[in-house]
Write a sequence for this structure.
């Protein structure tokens, strides 16, 4: 059989992996992982009920792939947005806006799926943790740089975690037709860190021995 005939005879679902992942992630967020069936996912993308298993061995595999690929796509967008931004304060503003865009202007549901990782085995959770750490390392490096320059009182890891908690919760209340644009929300979040209670007063140096490094 020729290569052309093989392609013609391939199942139509063979090139729909990305659509399947996006749809599964959305349903896992809307209905919860346990309440979402593979039939629900297949019907939402117009597939036969068993077709998701052409790409994934199980519903757990689908969840893991949706989370990891969402994190990796977000990491690539973050790196591209920050290229050439040397000032760490401006870089943090760009990172915050990019993260909110990933979360609220695209099909990325990964931040809302973190709780569902409890349904995965230890190996899958470790893979997700590695992808998460890679994404967050860029943020921690920028926070560390700001702390070194005296722009933050501390860059201890709880600051990074609280920042992500604040940004990710935006998915629960943000409305595209609301009073504030994403640009305004991103600026407000950045100002909270750089000019608000978390920031160090202008001209104040970081106390010796007080700066904390990430674990």
């Amino acid at each position: 059989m020729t290569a052309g005939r093989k392609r013609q005879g391939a199942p139509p679902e063979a090139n729909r992996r990305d659509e399947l992942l996006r749809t599964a992630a959305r349903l896992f967020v809307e209905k919860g992982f346990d309440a979402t069936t593979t039939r629900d996912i297949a019907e939402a993308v117009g597939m036969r009920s068993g077709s998701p298993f052409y790409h994934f061995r199980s519903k757990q595999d689908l969840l893991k792939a949706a989370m990891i690929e969402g994190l990796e796509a977000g990491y690539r967008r973050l790196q591209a947005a920050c290229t050439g931004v040397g000032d760490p304060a401006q870089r943090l503003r760009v990172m915050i806006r990019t993260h909110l865009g990933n979360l609220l202007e695209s099909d990325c549901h990964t931040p809302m799926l973190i709780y569902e990782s409890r349904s995965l085995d230890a190996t899958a959770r470790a893979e997700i943790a590695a992808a998460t750490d890679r994404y967050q390392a860029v943020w921690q490096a920028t926070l560390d740089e700001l702390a070194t320059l005296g722009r933050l009182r501390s860059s201890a890891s709880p600051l990074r975690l609280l920042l992500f908690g604040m940004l990710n919760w935006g998915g629960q209340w943000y409305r595209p037709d609301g009073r504030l644009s994403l640009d305004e929300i991103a600026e407000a979040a950045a100002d909270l860190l750089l000019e608000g209670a978390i920031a160090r007063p202008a001209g104040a140096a970081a106390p010796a021995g007080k700066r904390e490094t990430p674990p």
Remarks:
- The chain has two domains: 1-56, 66-215.
- Confidence is low (pLDDT under 50) at residues 1-11, 206-215.
- The domain at 66-215 is CATH 1.10.357.10 (Tetracycline Repressor; domain 2).
